[in-house]
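Changelog excerpt

This revision adds worked examples to the README so contributors can see how folded entries look when concatenated. The first example is reproduced verbatim below.
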Amino acid sequence: MGKNKVENVFRSRISVLLPVFVFVLFSPVIILMIKYMIIPGLIIMGGLFLLVVILYSGIHYIISGDTLFFKIWFIPTCSLKIKNIASIKRSYYLFDIPTNTTASFKKLRIEFLRNTNYPYLHVSPVREHDFIDELKKVNPSIQVCFFDKKGIGRILNCDI
């Protein structure tokens, strides 16, 4: 990420439903901790939840030249050549751990031409159409294969 190159920065979308999902998942444990007055456990769980929210809120996707960079706050995590991207598709996987770089239910699945560490990667930029346009400026052969859902299942640009 040189200083002379133009960089386009896209922050990651965070689903409004994800904290609700985590709270529902851990609510039995939270209720037991409150019932038996296990305050240190509540503090630890609250701290871990806050840490995860802070980490996921700092995810940025940076397009600089012909490279796509991923950063969490100021820490660069990886970089990929845009010319290796074959296609972009819609994805709704929640727990695809090795390839998930987002805290959202609504994602883009970037699939690659050549062997990389992973055959695909999940991202969820807030301005996803601008993100795709910037990628296609570098690599016009990227196939975009997705449609947004319409209807009642869509809340705050988030598909349920």
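The second example, added in the same revision:
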Amino acid sequence: MTAIAHTPRLGATILRTAARGAVLVGVAVVVGILLYSVVNGSGGAGGGGAKASTTPSSSSASTGTTATTSVNSGRPPAQVKVFVQNASGVSGAAATKANVLRGLGYAIVGTGNALTPQTGTVVGCKTGFTKEADTLAKAVGVGTTVGAYPTPPPANSTSADCIVTIGK
């Protein structure tokens, strides 16, 4: 008499394999969210992209009053109208950066090409937008500097509060 080896049911094997795959995909999604949060500096998953402002306070013992100082980064991105121009010579650089800034909540009023190439990326904002210029420069990326608002401003940028010039 020959012995017949017992084989596991095929359905159970497929189910276990599918469950392992689902768990691996879930882990990959969680790791991706965490890495995205770290890269974008949002500090945690699901943060919504807005950073809370800190409000340190101090008390005066003699009068019993409390003074509060608000530390913030100016207007929210949706209230800053930005024009992005390409001075890098790389085709599509302004449109690409405009899409990134739009994703961060900035109001993009247009894109264009600069008349002359330049080295380095510069953010220039109108008078009264100093805090916004610093915040926008950080959003544009590492190495971006804050400079003067271009005079004359680029064509089709008259409604912009800030001009981002993408350089080489």
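Reviewer comment on example two: The first strand starts at residue 57 and ends at 59. The two ends are 81 Å apart (CA to CA).
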